[in-house]
Task: structure prediction
Amino acid sequence: MATPQMPQEPQRFVERRPAPPTEEPLELEVWRARQKFALILGGVLVAVLVVGGAVALLFLREWRTSAVQAPPLLPTTGDIARVPSAPEPAGNPMVTTPAPLAPPPTTTVNPPLSSPQPQPSPSPERPQHPPPPPKVVLDYLEQLRQIELRRKTDAKNLWPAIVALGEMVQAVQGLATTGDPLEPPSSYDPQKTLQTFVTYQTAFARLHQWLQRLQPPPECLSLHTAYDQALQAHVAVIGKLRERIALKDLAGTAMIGLTAQRQINSALQTADSELARVCARYNIPKFFTIGDE
Result:
Protein backbone atom coordinates (compact mmCIF):
# COMPACT_ATOMS: atom_id res chain seq x y z
CA MET A 1 0.00 0.00 0.00
CA ALA A 2 1.42 3.15 -0.97
CA THR A 3 2.42 5.64 1.66
CA PRO A 4 0.95 8.91 1.35
CA GLN A 5 3.56 11.65 0.55
CA MET A 6 3.67 14.81 2.40
CA PRO A 7 3.24 17.82 0.33
CA GLN A 8 6.62 19.53 -0.24
CA GLU A 9 7.13 23.13 0.56
CA PRO A 10 8.48 25.26 -2.11
CA GLN A 11 12.30 25.85 -1.80
CA ARG A 12 13.50 29.25 -0.85
CA PHE A 13 16.73 30.50 -2.23
CA VAL A 14 18.70 32.57 0.28
CA GLU A 15 21.52 34.70 -1.17
CA ARG A 16 24.66 34.29 0.79
CA ARG A 17 26.77 37.39 0.95
CA PRO A 18 30.45 37.36 1.97
CA ALA A 19 31.05 38.41 5.46
CA PRO A 20 32.41 41.94 5.75
CA PRO A 21 36.07 42.21 6.78
CA THR A 22 36.56 42.36 10.39
CA GLU A 23 37.88 45.73 11.55
CA GLU A 24 40.61 45.71 14.15
CA PRO A 25 40.02 47.74 17.21
CA LEU A 26 41.66 51.21 17.36
CA GLU A 27 43.53 50.37 20.53
CA LEU A 28 45.37 47.57 18.75
CA GLU A 29 46.63 49.88 16.01
CA VAL A 30 47.81 52.45 18.51
CA TRP A 31 49.64 49.80 20.45
CA ARG A 32 51.38 48.51 17.35
CA ALA A 33 52.45 52.06 16.37
CA ARG A 34 53.86 52.69 19.81
CA GLN A 35 55.69 49.40 19.69
CA LYS A 36 57.27 50.28 16.34
CA PHE A 37 58.30 53.77 17.60
CA ALA A 38 59.76 52.25 20.75
CA LEU A 39 61.84 49.81 18.69
CA ILE A 40 63.18 52.59 16.46
CA LEU A 41 63.94 54.85 19.43
CA GLY A 42 65.62 52.01 21.26
CA GLY A 43 67.83 51.27 18.27
CA VAL A 44 68.84 54.92 18.01
CA LEU A 45 69.63 55.10 21.72
CA VAL A 46 71.69 51.94 21.54
CA ALA A 47 73.70 53.35 18.62
CA VAL A 48 74.25 56.65 20.45
CA LEU A 49 75.37 54.87 23.60
CA VAL A 50 77.77 52.65 21.68
CA VAL A 51 79.35 55.63 19.91
CA GLY A 52 79.51 57.63 23.16
CA GLY A 53 81.18 54.77 24.96
CA ALA A 54 83.78 54.40 22.21
CA VAL A 55 84.55 58.14 22.33
CA ALA A 56 84.82 58.01 26.12
CA LEU A 57 87.26 55.10 25.92
CA LEU A 58 89.34 57.00 23.35
CA PHE A 59 89.50 60.12 25.56
CA LEU A 60 90.44 57.99 28.56
CA ARG A 61 93.27 56.33 26.64
CA GLU A 62 94.58 59.73 25.45
CA TRP A 63 94.44 61.07 29.00
CA ARG A 64 96.42 58.12 30.34
CA THR A 65 99.09 58.59 27.63
CA SER A 66 99.45 62.32 28.30
CA ALA A 67 99.56 61.72 32.06
CA VAL A 68 102.47 59.28 31.64
CA GLN A 69 104.45 61.43 29.19
CA ALA A 70 103.94 64.83 30.85
CA PRO A 71 106.84 65.87 33.17
CA PRO A 72 105.90 66.29 36.80
CA LEU A 73 105.30 69.87 37.87
CA LEU A 74 107.13 71.08 40.96
CA PRO A 75 104.64 72.68 43.33
CA THR A 76 105.48 75.94 45.02
CA THR A 77 106.14 76.23 48.76
CA GLY A 78 103.15 75.17 50.82
CA ASP A 79 101.09 74.00 47.84
CA ILE A 80 99.76 70.47 47.50
CA ALA A 81 100.43 68.66 44.27
CA ARG A 82 97.16 67.50 42.75
CA VAL A 83 96.56 65.53 39.60
CA PRO A 84 93.56 66.85 37.67
CA SER A 85 90.85 64.21 37.29
CA ALA A 86 89.60 63.29 33.85
CA PRO A 87 86.09 64.44 32.91
CA GLU A 88 83.50 61.72 33.49
CA PRO A 89 81.80 60.48 30.34
CA ALA A 90 78.05 60.66 30.06
CA GLY A 91 76.22 57.80 31.70
CA ASN A 92 75.15 54.98 29.47
CA PRO A 93 72.98 52.23 30.90
CA MET A 94 73.58 50.04 27.86
CA VAL A 95 77.39 50.32 27.69
CA THR A 96 79.60 49.65 30.65
CA THR A 97 82.58 52.05 30.79
CA PRO A 98 85.66 51.35 32.91
CA ALA A 99 85.89 53.23 36.15
CA PRO A 100 88.30 56.23 36.13
CA LEU A 101 91.65 55.85 37.77
CA ALA A 102 91.86 56.90 41.35
CA PRO A 103 93.97 60.07 41.88
CA PRO A 104 97.38 59.52 43.48
CA PRO A 105 97.73 60.32 47.15
CA THR A 106 98.28 63.99 47.79
CA THR A 107 101.68 64.91 49.14
CA THR A 108 103.04 68.22 50.29
CA VAL A 109 106.38 69.06 48.72
CA ASN A 110 108.58 71.65 50.38
CA PRO A 111 111.70 72.85 48.54
CA PRO A 112 114.98 72.25 50.39
CA LEU A 113 116.61 75.19 52.03
CA SER A 114 119.48 76.31 49.85
CA SER A 115 122.30 78.58 50.81
CA PRO A 116 122.57 81.81 48.83
CA GLN A 117 124.71 81.29 45.78
CA PRO A 118 127.44 83.84 45.06
CA GLN A 119 126.61 86.19 42.25
CA PRO A 120 128.94 85.83 39.25
CA SER A 121 131.30 88.71 38.90
CA PRO A 122 130.57 90.87 35.88
CA SER A 123 132.84 90.10 33.01
CA PRO A 124 135.12 92.96 32.05
CA GLU A 125 134.05 94.82 28.98
CA ARG A 126 136.07 93.95 25.96
CA PRO A 127 137.77 96.92 24.40
CA GLN A 128 136.26 97.84 21.11
CA HIS A 129 138.81 97.52 18.35
CA PRO A 130 138.96 100.42 15.92
CA PRO A 131 137.91 99.73 12.34
CA PRO A 132 140.61 98.57 9.94
CA PRO A 133 142.24 101.39 8.00
CA PRO A 134 140.97 101.90 4.45
CA LYS A 135 143.38 101.13 1.65
CA VAL A 136 143.52 104.79 0.61
CA VAL A 137 144.80 105.69 4.08
CA LEU A 138 147.57 103.09 3.95
CA ASP A 139 148.55 104.16 0.44
CA TYR A 140 148.73 107.81 1.47
CA LEU A 141 150.86 107.03 4.53
CA GLU A 142 153.26 105.04 2.37
CA GLN A 143 153.66 107.96 -0.06
CA LEU A 144 154.20 110.32 2.87
CA ARG A 145 156.84 107.98 4.30
CA GLN A 146 158.77 108.08 1.03
CA ILE A 147 158.64 111.89 0.96
CA GLU A 148 159.85 112.11 4.56
CA LEU A 149 162.65 109.64 3.86
CA ARG A 150 163.81 111.83 1.00
CA ARG A 151 163.49 114.94 3.16
CA LYS A 152 165.73 113.38 5.82
CA THR A 153 168.33 112.61 3.15
CA ASP A 154 168.21 116.14 1.79
CA ALA A 155 168.32 117.57 5.30
CA LYS A 156 171.79 116.13 5.69
CA ASN A 157 172.89 118.71 3.12
CA LEU A 158 171.97 121.28 5.70
CA TRP A 159 175.30 120.72 7.46
CA PRO A 160 177.32 122.65 4.90
CA ALA A 161 174.80 125.46 5.23
CA ILE A 162 175.17 125.39 9.00
CA VAL A 163 178.94 125.59 8.59
CA ALA A 164 178.39 128.56 6.30
CA LEU A 165 176.19 130.18 8.93
CA GLY A 166 178.99 129.67 11.41
CA GLU A 167 181.30 131.49 9.07
CA MET A 168 178.75 134.29 8.90
CA VAL A 169 178.73 134.53 12.66
CA GLN A 170 182.51 134.68 12.63
CA ALA A 171 182.28 137.43 10.05
CA VAL A 172 179.92 139.38 12.26
CA GLN A 173 182.29 138.93 15.16
CA GLY A 174 185.13 140.14 12.92
CA LEU A 175 183.15 143.26 12.11
CA ALA A 176 182.76 143.95 15.78
CA THR A 177 186.54 143.51 16.23
CA THR A 178 187.87 145.46 13.25
CA GLY A 179 185.00 147.91 13.02
CA ASP A 180 185.08 147.64 9.22
CA PRO A 181 181.75 146.30 7.85
CA LEU A 182 183.22 145.78 4.41
CA GLU A 183 185.95 143.37 5.40
CA PRO A 184 184.60 140.06 6.68
CA PRO A 185 187.04 137.26 7.48
CA SER A 186 188.89 135.87 4.48
CA SER A 187 187.41 132.36 5.05
CA TYR A 188 183.91 133.61 4.30
CA ASP A 189 182.77 132.93 0.68
CA PRO A 190 179.28 134.42 0.10
CA GLN A 191 178.90 132.80 -3.33
CA LYS A 192 179.60 129.35 -1.92
CA THR A 193 177.13 129.94 0.89
CA LEU A 194 174.50 131.24 -1.53
CA GLN A 195 174.90 128.23 -3.83
CA THR A 196 174.57 125.87 -0.89
CA PHE A 197 171.23 127.39 0.10
CA VAL A 198 170.00 127.43 -3.51
CA THR A 199 170.57 123.67 -3.73
CA TYR A 200 168.89 123.19 -0.38
CA GLN A 201 165.86 125.27 -1.37
CA THR A 202 165.47 123.51 -4.74
CA ALA A 203 165.42 120.08 -3.11
CA PHE A 204 162.70 121.02 -0.65
CA ALA A 205 160.68 122.78 -3.36
CA ARG A 206 160.59 119.49 -5.30
CA LEU A 207 159.41 117.61 -2.21
CA HIS A 208 156.66 120.18 -1.76
CA GLN A 209 155.51 119.67 -5.36
CA TRP A 210 155.50 115.91 -4.80
CA LEU A 211 153.29 116.35 -1.76
CA GLN A 212 150.91 118.61 -3.68
CA ARG A 213 150.29 115.86 -6.25
CA LEU A 214 148.91 113.54 -3.56
CA GLN A 215 145.18 113.34 -2.87
CA PRO A 216 144.85 112.94 0.90
CA PRO A 217 141.81 111.01 2.20
CA PRO A 218 139.55 112.89 4.64
CA GLU A 219 141.09 111.01 7.58
CA CYS A 220 144.57 112.37 6.70
CA LEU A 221 143.66 115.92 5.75
CA SER A 222 145.03 117.45 8.99
CA LEU A 223 148.25 115.44 8.62
CA HIS A 224 148.61 116.56 5.02
CA THR A 225 148.15 120.22 5.97
CA ALA A 226 150.67 120.03 8.83
CA TYR A 227 153.34 118.36 6.69
CA ASP A 228 152.71 120.83 3.88
CA GLN A 229 153.35 123.69 6.30
CA ALA A 230 156.57 122.01 7.45
CA LEU A 231 157.90 121.83 3.87
CA GLN A 232 156.85 125.41 3.25
CA ALA A 233 158.80 126.42 6.37
CA HIS A 234 161.92 124.88 4.84
CA VAL A 235 161.48 126.78 1.58
CA ALA A 236 160.55 130.07 3.29
CA VAL A 237 163.50 130.06 5.69
CA ILE A 238 165.97 129.30 2.92
CA GLY A 239 164.45 132.05 0.78
CA LYS A 240 165.00 134.60 3.54
CA LEU A 241 168.58 133.46 3.98
CA ARG A 242 169.22 133.88 0.26
CA GLU A 243 167.85 137.41 0.37
CA ARG A 244 170.07 138.36 3.30
CA ILE A 245 173.10 136.81 1.64
CA ALA A 246 172.40 138.61 -1.63
CA LEU A 247 172.12 141.90 0.25
CA LYS A 248 175.34 141.09 2.10
CA ASP A 249 173.45 141.56 5.35
CA LEU A 250 175.62 139.31 7.44
CA ALA A 251 173.98 140.19 10.73
CA GLY A 252 170.47 139.53 9.39
CA THR A 253 171.63 136.32 7.74
CA ALA A 254 173.18 135.10 10.97
CA MET A 255 170.03 135.85 12.99
CA ILE A 256 167.79 134.04 10.50
CA GLY A 257 170.17 131.08 10.48
CA LEU A 258 170.09 130.83 14.27
CA THR A 259 166.24 130.65 14.37
CA ALA A 260 165.69 128.63 11.16
CA GLN A 261 166.22 125.19 12.68
CA ARG A 262 163.88 125.94 15.57
CA GLN A 263 161.08 127.01 13.21
CA ILE A 264 161.53 123.93 11.03
CA ASN A 265 161.60 121.54 14.01
CA SER A 266 158.40 123.03 15.41
CA ALA A 267 156.56 122.47 12.11
CA LEU A 268 157.89 118.90 11.85
CA GLN A 269 156.78 118.05 15.40
CA THR A 270 153.25 119.25 14.61
CA ALA A 271 153.11 116.98 11.56
CA ASP A 272 154.46 114.03 13.56
CA SER A 273 151.71 114.50 16.16
CA GLU A 274 149.08 114.33 13.41
CA LEU A 275 150.71 111.16 12.09
CA ALA A 276 150.47 109.57 15.56
CA ARG A 277 146.80 110.51 15.77
CA VAL A 278 145.97 108.81 12.46
CA CYS A 279 147.84 105.64 13.46
CA ALA A 280 146.08 105.51 16.84
CA ARG A 281 142.69 105.93 15.20
CA TYR A 282 143.13 102.76 13.16
CA ASN A 283 145.34 100.89 15.67
CA ILE A 284 148.25 100.56 13.28
CA PRO A 285 151.93 100.86 14.24
CA LYS A 286 153.60 104.19 13.64
CA PHE A 287 156.06 102.85 11.10
CA PHE A 288 157.94 106.11 10.51
CA THR A 289 158.67 109.38 12.27
CA ILE A 290 158.52 112.91 10.93
CA GLY A 291 161.44 115.04 12.06
CA ASP A 292 165.21 115.22 12.24
CA GLU A 293 167.15 113.18 14.76
The CA atoms of residues 80 and 108 lie 5 Å apart. The longest strand covers residues 80-81. The two ends are 202 Å apart (CA to CA). The mean pLDDT is 75.
